Amino acid sequence: MAELLPALRTPRGVVTALLLLLLAVLPLLTQAFDQRYLLSVGTRIVIWSIAAASLNMILGYGGLVSFGHAAFLGIGGYAVGILSAEGFASGWLQWPVAIAVAVAWGTLIGALSLRTRGVYFIMITLAFAQLVYYLSSGLAAYGGDDGLNISRSRFPGLIDLRDKASFYWLCFVLLCATLWFCSRLVHSRFGYVLRGAKSNELRMTALGFPVFRYRLVAFALAGGFGALAGILLANDGAYVSPAMMSWVKSGDLIVIVVLGGIGALFGPLYGAIAFFAVEEFLPPLLNLMHRGWGEYWQIVFGPLLVIIALYARGGLDSLLGRRHG
Amino acid sequence: MMDYLLIQVLNGVQLGLLMFLLAAGLTLTFGIMDLVNLAHGSLYMMGAYFAWTLIGWTHSFALGALLALPACFLLGVVVEVVVARRLYARDHLDQVLATFGLILFFNELVRAIWGPEGRSISVPAFLNHTVTLLPGVIYPAYRFALIVVGSVVAILLAWLVARTRLGMLIRAGASNRRMIAALGVNIELLFSLVFGLGAVFAGLAGLMAAPIASVKIGMGDDILIVAFVIIVIGGIGSIKGAFVAAMVVGQIDIVGRAFLPDFLKTFMGAASASAAAPAISQVLIYVVMAAVLVWRPTGLFGQRT
What we know:
The structure holds two protein chains of two kinds. The radius of gyration of chain A is 20 Å and the shape is globular. Chain A has helices at residues 4-8, 11-24, 26-32, 36-61, 70-85, 91-113, 118-137, 164-186, 189-199, 201-206, 211-237, 247-260, 267-289, 298-311, and strands at residues 148-149, 239-240. The longest helix of chain A has 27 residues, at 211-237. Chain A starts with a helix and ends in a 14-residue tail after the last helix. Helix content of chain A is 70%, strand content 1%. Chain A has a two-stranded antiparallel ribbon. By secondary structure, chain A is mainly α. By secondary structure, chain B is mainly α. A two-stranded antiparallel ribbon of chain B has the order 1-2. In chain B, a hairpin with a 2-residue loop joins strand 1 and strand 2. In chain B, helix 1 crosses helix 6.
């Protein structure tokens, strides 16, 4: 705890602490002001923060531009969906299986993808994600293209996921756990090797580190956390469909990570908040300027991304001052 | 049975040629400018929409299609000058992000201008019949025309890259960009030209595909990923590689659609077989790509590093 206090005195510390506090009490606020819709937006923000944080592990710390991360969300979601359709309703079974499948898939495609570099890596991760996407849309027994309505995971006597507020708090706790894990990871020997390989792979190899293996572990881990986000998404809407792993979702995840700040611990959270804020507030804002414009908000959002890519690499995190470590 | 097989092979060639047109521009921008251009599929889509509008104005398929090509060229040059040019020196992540933004922009722009519902371009009257290629082998004239036009353009492109001064500069640019700039070549102009050329090929593919598919928002996005797969299989920057890979992918796709359902029916229900077959043929394409990359991490004809 002692080392947390100086961190709290920086602008970044204050903003982050306030944000986490706000998120922690969000269900109470939305209940007090009778804004149920805001709670569902909040839930999505928290879940996508977990997804973005998992991508940040490889994209941010490892410098590996994976363009197929949504596939892990889909694997997590579909594992829950298929198990529940087959009558295995217990979350104690569904969740570990979902994560294990995603880690196994991450290890397999990581072992193949990490042999390639640069553009080839971007494209092969995208291709594997498309592969999973088409496989899921070919699952006629589980809804095919139309997706699958599922019943939420059961944790008897512990938590009822149908209750919106409890579900939100569960997501929030899991987000905190994910971010805590990330912070431990970055500052571990493993994290240093990963970041070292990002800045100079040749040097790390020359120092004797098996860079490939470190990256593979990071890739599989990121897949596991991605699946966690997918499990939560499936339980949020009680529904899974191939659309949750379309390549546009993988693009959205990259956008969230970059928007928040690549390789920043809380970047995914800032990014997700900004992403959903734009999605929720840009259309009404445009409608204020001219009726009917709001429908076409992506005409503004698209160029905004171009501008961010060109001129605002540090993301929102860089607004909070220089980063340490 | 042989006739059916031949027709399916022709369909594969036709699809492969369309994919090659799309992939050619992509592999050039990749190879020469080192740009991951996700928005290339948007140019494919814009080609089809331009053609739809121009055909409506001119009441002629041929004229409308011909006029759409310079429009695509202009659009390509504008995209290059306004956005793409600023991305060449950036890392791949910036390029992915910015061109992803361009996709959102173009998809929404099309929705605002042409409306959310799809459009259709009908097969022109002068090609709306069938041709007899061999005794007993009857093939739609429009698809045959696609094969002819696609082959001509492919040969033209091969000639352009291998035999002309522009092609020489393109090849030199692909192997060492800074060197040819130092030798006094106006590299900015060259890049704009290549980008515009890529846009023309993409637009041509889009408008030629329009009568057999449909003109709709996002039509370029899924096919773009297949085009990426093609250039990755072929090796980035290699026109020859793109051609070979496009042909292979075209055949896999068609064979999957034409023969897999019957094959699958031998051990599963007819309904699930016809649902699973297109998915499996798509999956096959990615499996082939993964296999090639495991075997050769820079593609079939890519430069070894």
